[in-house]
Structures are given as C-alpha cells and as structure tokens.
Predict the structure of Short-chain dehydrogenase.
Amino acid sequence: MVVTGASSGIGLAGAVALARAGDDVVLLGRDPRRLADAVSRVREAGGRTPASYRADFAVLDEVRAAGAAITAGHERVDVLANNAGLLTSVRRPTADGHDPTVQVNHLGGFLLTHLLLDRLRAAARPAAPARIVTTSSLAEAWGTLDPDRPGRRQFSRWLAYGASKQANILMTVEAARRWTGLGIVATCFFPGLVRSGFGRQSPSFTVARLAPGLFRSSEQGADTLVWLATDPAALVPGGYFAGRTPFPATGRSTDPDRARRLWQSSLAAVGH
Ligand SMILES: NC(=O)c1ccc[n+]([C@@H]2O[C@H](COP(=O)([O-])OP(=O)(O)OC[C@H]3O[C@@H](n4cnc5c(N)ncnc54)[C@H](OP(=O)(O)O)[C@@H]3O)[C@@H](O)[C@H]2O)c1
C-alpha cells in the first residue's frame, strides 16, 4: 500500500494503522526529517521497516523519479492512497507552470497514479480489486476549477484549495469510469476537520482549531482512509465518503463531463 503525505497527519496515522494491521506500507513524503520519523513510527507499529520515498509534488520531475523508484522496487501496488496535500500562501506558479496548490494537491497525485497504473493492474484480482483512495475535502464546495485549465492561476489560497479538492473528486469519478473494468476501484473521502500539520499558515484555520470539539485527531481523520483501503464494503467505484458513509458533493465536483475534460487537460498538464 503506497501512502502519499505519509510524513504527517492523516497519512501518517493511516500508514501506522495499516502497518499495525499487518499491511506492507510504502511511505511518500516531502520533508526528509519528518519522513525519517514516520519510518520509525511505522516500524514500531508493524514490526517491519517500510520502504520510503521522498518527492516534492511541486516539482513534477520529482514525482516522476519517485514513480520510477516505486515501480522498480515493487511488483504490485494493491492500494494507492493519494493523500498528500497542503494549503499554501505561495501564489507563484511552479516551475512546471501550474498553480502550486492545484499541482501539489491534484496534478502530482494524478501523475503518480498514472506512473503506478501498471503496478495497480498487477495487483488487481477479480475478488480483490486494487484501490485508489484520494483525500478530498468539504472545500470542494467553493472550488473554482476550470476543468480545461486546471493549473491556471487561482486568486486566493482558499479558492485554489477548493479547486484542488474539486479536482480530487472529479479524478475519482473519471478513474472509476475508466478503470473499474480493469479491476481498480477509485474512491475518495472527506476526513473531517483534523488537527494535523494542515493550515498552520492560515490565521482563520489556526483560530478555528481552538474551538472545542470542532477538530478531530489525525487517527480519527484517517479512519475512513483505512476503511476505504481495506474493507470489502468500501469497494464503491467513484464513491465519496465521510465517516465511512456516502457524503454529498456539489454537482461541479461530480459532473461526468467536467471529469472527462479535467482528465484530458490534466494529462496534458503533466505531459503524460
Ligand atoms: N486537516 C484537515 O482539516 C483536512 C481537512 C480536509 C482534507 N484534508 C486533506 O488531508 C490531506 C492530508 O493533510 P493533513 O491534514 O494530514 O495535513 P499535514 O499534517 O500537513 O500532512 C500533509 C502531508 O502532505 C505532504 N505534502 C505537503 N506538501 C507536499 C508537497 N509539496 N509534496 C509532497 N508532499 C507534500 C506533507 O509532507 P511533509 O510533511 O513531508 O512536508 C504531509 O505528509 C491533504 O490532502 C488535505 O488537503 C485535511
């Protein structure tokens, strides 16, 4: 099971829970120190040292290198958890020319998914499909994603974040249409408001974290990720969940035509 964003928060909590249950977990992170700490935490939980890879999704060449390294090191990937994500005040386009939030939260995972597609197909069995689980958010509701130009500059960090989370659901919808027949089931989820490393640069999010009872732990946030990664009842192609139950998304995030267009434009954006 490959988990991106495994060096902190929801991804780390999910990787620990999966390792504790006996799963072979592969960690992807950006920060070398946090990634090394995550390796130790997962080793303590599962008794084995997990493979780990470093990549900054703001640099597509680093995603390509990580995809190549994972492909070389692992014959099968039964679950890919596309969880890496951030809210950033950086508005400068990436070196690849895209909005930085949309690149990290959508295009990086989209590219990695394609790079690992053969490994997912190799893991897929009729009775046990491979799975792609993507961490989205309620923020999809205010997303201003242009499905034909996903990397276009967004006007604020929250609009960019919403656009990226809309893209997460649209990618899931289209992956389900394209790949369910290959034995790969794509789902996504909203983890709730989680007290993790997320949103530390945002004054409003930082204040909101102080409200009693509003935020949950990373372990609670990871519960639906672990469920979607492992439970036979969670094999619902294109499903969007929160708290292990179906969760409504806006029409702009589930529209099949927008999903198709986003897929094509994202392929062009990552040069795949
Ligand atoms: N926290 C919430 O309330 C909340 C709510 C809804 C959805 N989400 C989503 O949940 C997911 C996980 O976030 P979290 O709450 O667990 O936050 P977190 O503790 O900050 O963890 C984010 C993870 O994403 C990785 N990441 C960030 N930027 C990256 C980049 N440029 N390249 C590669 N990896 C990068 C981080 O790596 P490093 O630590 O190595 O930098 C870290 O492992 C995100 O997709 C987020 O949008 C969170």
About this structure: The longest helix spans residues 157-179.
